[in-house]
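Session log. Operator J.P. requested a structure for one protein chain; no other inputs attached. Running the standard single-chain path with token output.
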Amino acid sequence: MDKEKLIKAINQKGLRNSLISIYYNIGRTLPFRAQRFPDGRVSDWYRSQFVEVHEVKPGGKGGKYGYAYGFYFRNGERADATENNPEQSWCKTSDTEPQGIPCAACGSWVLLDILGEATSEPTKIYGVNDVLEVGKHKGKTLAEVIRSDWGWVKWAKENAEHIFFDMDEVVEERNKSIKPLHPEDVLTYGKYKGQSIRDIADLDMNYLKWLAANNDDFVFDFTELS
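Structure written below.
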């Protein structure tokens, strides 16, 4: 499997990724590198540091929790985890054995690189022509679902624990399926369902502007109303 595609797919889950889940999803590969943005907080400080994971000991129901061990890096080099108080660091520059990584089973981890070889099959990444094997649309191709239930695709991308998409293919397919609307087209949803866009514009232009900003299915060139 293409490494960059796998990394991109894993990182779709954002706040849901722990070091334990990453380990499973990349085929129990060690070592790998990751960094954490607690609660989604992104800053130069968090960007400057990462861990290199060398050992994982899953635990808890289904192995979803557990411990990870490795080394701490800052600005691309081994460093003391607590810069101003090295003796209190969970990992010191002088450590030669992997150390217990804090918050290994917490979320908000981002996969940076996969350094080792997989020891099991990595998670499946669905392309648009693949048939979904799990979920409410099991048995349908991803392309079918993109056209019929885009809201579910967006939800599954971030929230479904075992469903990963090739988002480059998904976006391309989505763009092909979007039909631009015109003034005489009738809206099939919302509070003005059954009325033409031109009539709605006369009644409530702000509503159309709100749709354009908040509804992916509403693609309209407002200059056509001129």
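Operator note: The chain has a mean pLDDT of 93.
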